[in-house]
Amino acid sequence: MEDDLPDWLPTWCADHLGAEPVAVLFEARSISAVFGLRLATGRDVVVKAREDDGRAASCVAAQARLADRGFPCARPVTPVTGVGTLAVHAEELRPGGELLRGDSPHVAARYAEVFARLMTALADVTVPPPLPNPRWIRWDHTDPGLWPSIEDLDRRDQNTVPAYVVETAGRLRGRLLAADLPRVLGHADFEAQNLRWLGGRVWAVHDWDS
């Protein structure tokens, strides 16, 4: 099993969680690497590692405050630590629940209600601003062109992006750059795959799709 994990991960788990992993429950790798693990003690955790851009500690601190206030997010169980160029932390696994699928106004309203609840809970949380914004929402970037530079996406055929998307993004970015509004904390990857629902209510909000 350990052959499938980064060399540093078993030791990191032993040092910070008290036991090495004995099973991989799930794994996702993209901009970050996310590992759902079962430890030798029987405890299930999620370990997330990403390039350290200075944002992770503030994000995890805000996430912990949300959990303390009863918001159904995965509670961090370690602080952020450095492993080479990576920022690494672990959080509780919240298993169960289902995706809420669909594109009806009713489904959209359900997600909007959760997002509003999250933003309200974060409104008075004070942490060092986790800037710059993640690359995929970096509307205030200084790169040439409309989109922030993301190597994997820049290599793709840009002609496949519909013209109305480009036009809408340009107008939106212009409005954001012109706005004089306070910055707020939020969830930069609030998408359906990062939420689970149980018994008609939101059960878990996380960011485990990597």
TrEMBL record:
Residue span, Aminoglycoside phosphotransferase domain: 42-209
Transmembrane segments: none
Name by which UniProt lists this protein: Aminoglycoside phosphotransferase domain-containing protein
Residues making up the signal peptide according to the UniProt record: none
UniProt superkingdom: Bacteria
